Amino acid sequence: MELDANTLAALWGAVIFSGVYHGVNPGMGWPLAVSAGLMEGRHRAMAKAIAALALGHLLAMLAILLPFSMMTALIRWETELRIGAGLLVVAAGVYLVINRRHPRFLARVAPSRLVLWSFLAAMAHGAGLMLVPIYLGICDADLADAGHEAARDLMGQNITVAFAVALAHTLAMTVAGGAIAAVIYFYVGLKFLSRTWFNLDLVWALSLIIVGAFGIYMALYGH
Amino acid sequence: MTLRPDPTFHATAQLAMQAPVENYGFVVMLSPDASQPDGIAVVDLNPKSDGYGTIVHQLLMPNTGDEFHHFGWNACSSSLSPLTGHAFLERRYLIVPGIRSSRIYVIDTKDPLDLKIHKTIEPEEVFAKTGYSRPHTIHCGPEGIYVSTLGGGGEDGTDGPPGIFIMDCETFEIIGQYEMDRGKQDKHYDFWWNLPQDYMVSSEWGLPPQYENGVVPEDLLSNKYGHSIHFWDLRRRKNIQTMDFGENYQMALEIRPAHDPKKSYGFCGVVVDTTNLQGAIFTWWRGEDGTWQSKKTITIDPRPEDPENLPPLLQGFGAVPPLVTDIDLSLDDKYLYVACWGLGEMHQYDVSDPMNPKLTGKVELGGIARGTKHPGGGDFAFGPQMVEISRDGKRVYWTNSLYSTWDTQFYPGQDGGQMVMAHVGENGGLTLDRDFYIDFPKGHRAHQIRLEGGDCSTDSFCYPNV
């Protein structure tokens, strides 16, 4: 079981890392929190905006992970499911490599509706999909750990894991994004906004492909 | 698409003021009789350069009769909001519409000394995709590039109201009409917005038959030009309030919101009050209850004049109206510049208190029945018109033409294009630079000015000043 414990730790590490990665990307919203704080002239407004962004992101993660957690009950098809999920994530990455344009409907969301914007932005960029192979890996490692259980118990357990993954990821994202927002707001000022903003579109799309490919590899050779 | 945001994008107006100053200006060249193509002149604005204060390059169009007027950048500081999703655009292309032809040129300024036409959108495409005609003001914003139009469909542009359409900010494809609910809006001119507060304000000039062949005196005296401004829910694309200044306030033109998005006020210039020939500036603001309010905060009196010195159009009045044709607000929201095209004056008002503007500077140049010469000795045809302020607020540039047919009505017998510059004093005040005087090539008049790296009527900021 040594190997599985290590694998599990690595997978949880990936959940946290992807959260930080999403959080530091200005495109995922932290500048909006700085803006909200400055517009109202008080840092409580910034905290509120960060919370709204976090909620939208969390919902987007759950919207993707929960359907997969239902499907994990189909334990006989576990390998096929994980390969399919991996292919889906790779396909999303390939699509984003080819189509580098941001969806225009996002620009129609009013600045006051940050929960909705954060949800749609995460969905549109496949942020939830990035977690799927990692999540399925964790379910599998848990499975190996616990031995075969009744499908119903397993599903319940996997739903719990989905919430845990989404929460841990969102928490990491919120802490990372919130920390940058706070440093900009309280200390260094907005001139660092344009200096710290890098075009991660391609890196992002490639990350999806890598994570998806990793998921497929794990499904085939992970045991 | 770039790897880093364009260095000319700034989070706040304050940061834009501290940025490096302009090296070039782009100025519309208009052939008033359509005998030559219109074009864009590139003016060298770097005092250390050999070509300083001269036209160092010009690009003429392949067509005649476009009638260039206003134009704008494909991208600006508004890109720095995550909400827009296009932080990595370059400020590189000038969108230049012909208000007579309805043709739109996209001009690549990558090398300011070698402008190139990147794309041409033919009038038929504008008509077919938007139902509008006579494109005018350009602003880059959340959904792409927004273009206001002065005409609706049909030959004379009166088949349906004019409005705004949206273009894709990368491909420059026309997407379609902006409005979902235009309310009472039936004329159009300028528009601008406050992005974080999510409102837009638009204004009214007149319909094409009211201006294309010259001002129609009967329409003006019966108050048939625009006198309302419209407030919109920007992202819902809905007119939420129409504010009528009063029908005597004819031609509510330029909309200048405060640059700091924390502020919920702005200004609108009115060309002429038909009851007394005054020019007027209204301050508009959002009241406690969320509705929009306005108040006339600046009036400029006409100057009595012997009728024999006046153009036929004005002889009956025995006075020169100020004709407030353009206004511009410095990036620190401190000084409002008001072009009095009839009087031949450029005014500078301290609008730190937007409800109590104070006249702090004035320059006389050109003007009806006055024709004040430039201090360097050159003639200045017509009067001060399109005005643009440097980002740091220290230099004010302006040109002289209003609109081909109107120039001739108000200044019969005059012609020529000039661009001048004035320095702003430490505590206000305005002084013409006697050495900065650009006489445009014969046959071309000068209209709107755009500064390299953005200016005071281009960039919309998504973050408040600190």
TrEMBL record, chain A:
Domain of life: Bacteria
Residues that span the membrane, as ranges: 45-69, 81-98, 114-138, 158-188, 200-220
Keywords: Membrane, Transmembrane, Transmembrane helix
Protein name: Urease accessory protein UreH-like transmembrane domain-containing protein
Originating species: Roseinatronobacter ekhonensis
Automatic annotation (TrEMBL), chain B:
GO molecular function: selenium binding
Origin species: Roseinatronobacter ekhonensis
Protein name: Methanethiol oxidase
InterPro entries: Se-bd
Protein family: Belongs to the selenium-binding protein family.
